[in-house]
Amino acid sequence: MTYIGQKPANKAITSADIEDGVVSTVDIGDDQVTTDKLANSINSAITANTAKTTNATHSGEVTGATALTIADNIVDEANLKVSNAPTNGYALTAQSGNTGGMTWASVGSVYGTQYFAANRGSNETHTNQSYGKIGINNELVDVGNNYDTSNYRYVVPITGLYFFYARGYFDANADGQLSLVEFHFKKNASDYVAESQIDLQNNPGRRAGTTLTAILSLSEDDYIEWWAQVKDTSGNPTFIAHSGVGVAGSANQFGGWRIA
Q1: In this predicted structure, what is the pLDDT of residue 142?
Q2: String of b and e for 44-55 (b: at least 16 CB within 10 Å)?
């Protein structure tokens, strides 16, 4: 810049040299104001994020100003994430593989679709006068796929009340006689939860059987097995296959279903 006379000395401009209202936003270049030029209180507020610690007061289903809360008695069917549309009389059931983990299902289907029936496909030898598990290895029906033919147990899929039944026959060894047939339902490989027996001490027979039924209150993942003890006067008795007596499938069978 060209000057007339002596060049003025350089001088820092202070707030006293600027009239109020003279500098407008158009006179400040973009990105020219740094944090050093801001008041310390402004920098502290930015660092602490104090400008965002409050919200506008909300009303309706979600209420509050700082901490937001769902109001009592406000969440309705439309707010639920369920895999299917509701039907009057249906119950909401847990189904981890479905959308939202919940599914509407009829009460009857919840109970009625959990059932099984199985029998023994061939004769099986049992140790005389010892408790042993009956090897029921042939599924007749297994809705829910909860009966395991490899370890002969039914695994409970849903906590509730279940009805179980078992019927079967034993044959004495060679010319021996049976004096006792005793059936048990065993829960989780340790607890006997039901028993049925036929005592033949005074009238021993070569072949004998009994039927066992029980209503059991069980939790999810409990399992039930059918065990037996048989006394034979001449050796190890034989559990009869399904085709050994009467109509095929009628000699022995193990089954059950959820009732509540």
Answers
A1: 92
A2: eeeeeeeeeeee
